[in-house]
Amino acid sequence: MIYIKTAEEIERMREACDLVSRVLGEVARWVEPGVTTRKLDNVAREFILDNGGKPACLGYHGFPGTLCIEVNETVVHGFPSGYALREGDIIGTDCVVEYNGFHGDSCYTFTVGDIDPKTERLLSITKQSLYKGIEIAQPGKRIGDISNAIQTFCEKAGYSVVREMCGHGIGKSMHEDPEVPNFGRKGIGPILRPGMCIAIEPMINLGSKNVVIESNGWECRTRDRKPSAHYEHTVLITEDKPEILTTFRYIEEAIGSKVVNNK
Ligand code: MF3
Ligand code: CO
Predict the structure, then answer these.
(1) 131 Cβ inside 6 Å of ligand 1
(2) Protein residue whose Cα sits closest to atom 8 of ligand 1
(3) 105 lines ligand 1 (CB under 6 A)
(4) Which tens digit of pLDDT belongs to each residue from 57-91?
(5) 53 against 261, higher pLDDT
(6) CB 171, CB 5: distance < 8 Å
(7) pTM for the full model?
(8) What is the DSSP letter of 78?
(9) Which one, 4, 109, 170, 256, has least CB within 10 Å?
């Protein structure tokens, strides 16, 4: 069942999405060699609580973090840990905040110091693919049109699309209908209508598309252990152009001149 949000609900979605965006902006200030992923998780949790929100991932089906931590070959759902970031790493931080009963969901993949140019290009293409998907999200289009735009763009660039995880509807629940795959055919799936909110989140691998889930049932990494990138926005379908409810503005302000993937 796909929920169409009322004007008042949309206003609350905007607030939840602004908060999760500011959380990632705060996390961005801490990303540097030597910082543990647990520290980043603590920063995020405290920021959310200080601002009247709820860390929605923490305890969700037993998930142990506020952030999903995605270092290098980790695709999604990595646990915060004592691992200290190293120069050359990439780290995705995926966060969901609940605020006044609504959810905002966003993810950004950061670079730690200088990284391999091949990985840098993976990040740039993955981020661009997110906006390619968003651009399609207009009334009358179908979910498959978004999926196909992301897949086509990433595969043309030589990368592969993770199949096991998808974007999703979002609102009073973190995960609502419809599913938003990052691959598929044009013209299939639910029709987009004004008032729908969806989280679009390409997960793109440098090597093969195959992934492995660790024995803890959560942490997902590439089978070939090559890097994977992940960016996510929560998006509102309007009468015309989509409204991106989350923003990377706070992140990009925080990392300033360090931005290499801001194309
Ligand atoms: N952003 C992730 C998603 O889109 C968050 C879910 S992680 C969990 O599905 F830990 F909460 F499960
Ligand atoms: Co999501």
Answers:
(1) no
(2) 57
(3) yes
(4) 999 999 999 999 999 999 999 999 999 999 999 99
(5) 53
(6) yes
(7) 0.96
(8) P
(9) 256
Reduced to 3 states (helix: H, G, I; strand: E, B; else coil), residue 193 is coil
Q: How far apart are the CA of 107 and the centre of ligand 2, in A?
A: 8
Q: Which atom of ligand 1 is nearest to the CA of 95?
A: 1
Q: Could you tell me if 161 and 183 are in contact, meaning their C-beta atoms sit under 8 angstroms apart? A: yes
Kindly report the number of other CB atoms within 10 A of residue 101's CB atom.
11
Degrees to nearest 5, angle at CA 201 with 196 and 204: 155
Taking alpha carbons only, the member of 22, 27, 125, 116 closest to residue 70 is 27
Q: What pLDDT shows up at residue 260?
A: 46
- H or E element at residue 50: helix 37-50
- 102 and 129 in contact (C-beta within 8 Å)? no
pLDDT of residue 263: 34
Q: Coil, strand or helix: which one is 160?
A: strand
Q: How confident is the model at residue 253 (pLDDT cuts 50, 70, 90)?
A: very high
First to last CA, the chain: 36
CA distance 18 to 132: 22
* Dist. CA 177–CA 169, nearest whole Å: 5
Whether residue 57 has its Cβ less than 6 Å from ligand 1 = yes
The predicted pLDDT at position 241 comes to 98
Q: Over 124-155, what HEC string results?
A: HHHHHHHHHHHHHCCCCCEHHHHHHHHHHHHH
Name the phi and psi angles at 101, rounded to 5.
85, 0
